[in-house]
Design a protein that fits this description.
A 5-stranded antiparallel sheet has the order 4-3-2-1-5. Helices cover 30% and strands 28% of the residues. It is α+β, with helices and mostly antiparallel strands.
Length: 106
């Protein structure tokens, strides 16, 4: 049985500001509690992100470099950092799904 979240134990919000704050907290919790990207995954942002070198990219390959997990731009393979990654919207394509999608296209 799942334990109730702290917000579920609270009474109704006392004003609109409190209700909005709780909604933002729930949204952030939903984003940060997702599974972290693992090597072999493909990470896809909803919109392209423009980097300091002027290149925009939306799709990234998740790779392992020693003990670190790194993101490589799909277009040119350059290693990049995305600030506040876990609080951003993105989707993951698992290695198995990416491989089967590639075989269907081929």
């Amino acid at each position: 049985m799942a334990r109730p979240r702290s917000f579920d134990l609270l009474g109704p919000p006392i004003n609109d500001h409190a209700a909005e704050w709780r909604a933002r907290c729930r949204q952030r919790l939903a984003l940060t509690s997702r599974r972290k990207p693992r090597p072999g995954d493909t990470l896809v942002l909803p919109e392209p992100l423009t980097f300091s070198d002027g290149i925009s990219e939306q799709t990234f390959q998740v790779r392992s470099w020693g003990t670190r997990t790194v993101l490589l731009r799909a277009g040119d393979g350059a290693g990049v950092r995305i600030s506040r990654l876990m609080t951003r919207a993105w989707t993951l394509v698992a290695p198995e799904a990416a491989a089967s999608a590639a075989s269907v296209v081929a």
